[in-house]
Amino acid sequence: MRKLFFTLLIISIFAVSCTQSDTASQVPEGEYIQWRSENETADALVLKGMFLYMNVESEMAYTYFKSSLDFDSTLFGSHVMLAWMSPPSEVKDMHQKKARELVKGKNENSNLLVSFFDVLPGDDLRAKRHKIWSKMYEIEPDGRFIHYYYAITKPTLEERISELEVLLERQKNDNNFLGVGHILNRLGYFNYDLGNKAKAKNYFDQYIKAYPDGYNPYDSMGDYYSNEKDYENALSYYQKSLDRYPANRSSINKIREINDLKADEAAAVAKQKNQDNFDRNVATIKAWIKGFADKDLEGQLALYADSAKWSPPNYNGNVLVGLKGQVDALSFYHNNFDDITFQEGVGLPGDDGAGFYAGSYYPDLDNPNAVRVYGTWKTTHKETGKKVSNKWYGLIIFNEDGKIAYFSDWFDVNGIQVQIEAE
Question: Where is pLDDT greater, at 132 or 315?
Answer without folding.
Answer: 132
